[in-house]
Write a structure and sequence with these properties.
The protein is an alpha/beta fold. It has 14 helices and seven strands.
């Protein structure tokens, strides 16, 4: 981090000269009782994202305080300043919270690949690393020209952290046993509020036969996609439905638009939309057109989940290429959190976390943050890191062959 700070600082000096106006400060790494005082009046903030950062209470507080400064500027002037600059520092086990993703500020957004730290350590990635340094410096210099209003220490104490280690599930729980394969559709409970919509970007066996060799995980309809075979025969809609019911959400609508079919025009704007993507579909020329239709729709997309099943040997062999293909598509045009699911367990946990972040509630939805045995709950930071590490095991060897560390 010190080297990255020095590299960015020298890039700024090369443009503005060695003046006090051009000088930045690296935050002290030690713990503190509250947010760093510099967050209250600094002109711009550079954040290096990692799993440890988003799970740290002090970091979450400082991020939220600075975000409140930008919000105040927007309320006063009608314009939101570009005062925060983000970099994915370490991508391992990183799941960016929704409050972070809705602010377009991350320079190296393709965080499913190596983070800036990996690029810094790899001599063969020197050009990519220095490209990020130059882009960060340019963004910081532009941000410093229009700083957000300063905040007093007393005001900062009233700011509620928007993420961190104490995120809890606001939904009531109910007992849910392991499901049998349910047909996709809408479950009965017409009186519940805040429905959940699954927007499934997947193909049929005929369509996928033109894109990959093995199509035994696909069926006659996109809703028949069973990416987690042979370990599980569950489809993506049945897995999402199971996780939603565990959170008390009974209304799940499944939409699987075809390559030329339009999206529904009557999408409920109050619905929480979860987009699940098969990365193999990026090889279809119609994928980009479909994604642009999603972006132009009224859907309130809460999260995008790319399914790369670790039990799928063909996907394992092509994992690096598939990730790069997703990064080259306009996937990040959607203001939503982005996840990768390597197992059915991972997809279920992601659904629970997305519902917690989006604020979707069942009717009369209040209850304890933890359910009874057998219920799905939000993973702790340690649990998420362990699961993500387990899912990544299958990708490590292919990435080493590409020079990643």
């Amino acid at each position: 981090m010190q080297r990255f700070h020095v590299d960015v600082q020298n890039e700024i000096y090369s443009v503005l000269g060695r003046t006090s106006f051009a000088e930045g400060r690296l935050k002290h790494p030690g713990p503190a009782a509250g947010p760093d005082p510099a967050v209250l009046d600094c002109r711009a903030l550079l954040i290096l994202y990692s799993a440890e950062y988003v799970d740290d209470a002090q970091c979450a507080t400082e991020w939220s305080v600075f975000a409140e400064r930008m919000d105040r500027c927007m309320r006063r002037t009608g314009e939101r300043p570009d005062s925060v600059v983000g970099v994915v520092w370490r991508s391992h086990a990183l799941v960016l919270p929704r409050p972070v993703t809705v602010v377009r500020h991350i320079v190296n957004e393709e965080y499913q690949g190596p983070g800036a730290l990996c690029l810094q350590q790899d001599p063969r990635s020197r050009d990519r690393y220095h490209s990020i340094v130059r882009r960060v410096a340019a963004r910081l210099m532009r941000a410093a020209e229009k700083p957000p209003p300063v905040m007093s220490e007393a005001e900062s104490r009233t700011v509620t952290p928007q993420f961190g280690p104490r995120r809890v599930m606001p939904h009531s729980r109910r007992d849910v046993s392991e499901p049998v394969t349910d047909p996709p559709g809408v479950a009965a409970a017409p009186d519940s509020d805040g429905p959940l919509m699954l927007l499934l970007v997947a193909g049929t066996s005929d369509r996928m036969g033109r894109l990959r060799e093995h199509v035994d995980r696909y069926g006659e309809h996109a809703e028949d996609w069973r990416p987690f075979r042979p370990g599980s025969e569950e489809t993506v809609p049945s897995t999402v439905g199971w996780a939603a019911r565990a959170c008390g959400i009974d209304r799940l609508a499944v939409v699987a638009p075809g390559p030329d079919g339009p999206l529904p025009e009557d999408i409920d704007e109050s619905a929480t939309v979860l987009v699940v993507v098969d990365p193999w579909l990026t090889g279809d020329p119609s994928f980009r057109v479909l994604w642009e239709r999603i972006v132009r729709s009224r859907a309130r997309v809460a999260a995008v989940v790319v399914v790369l099943a670790r039990a799928d040997e063909e996907s394992t062999a092509n994992a690096v290429r598939l990730r790069e293909a997703v990064c080259r598509t306009p996937a990040r045009m959607v203001d939503a959190a982005h996840h990768e699911a390597g197992s059915r367990e991972a997809l279920a946990h992601i659904v629970v976390a997305v519902l917690a972040d989006s604020g979707t509630r069942p009717a009369g939805g209040t209850g304890s943050a933890r359910g009874r045995a057998g219920d799905l709950t939000i993973e702790s930071p340690a649990e998420r890191r362990v699961r993500r590490q387990r899912e990544r095991v299958g990708w490590l060897q292919p990435e080493r062959t590409r020079g990643f560390r």
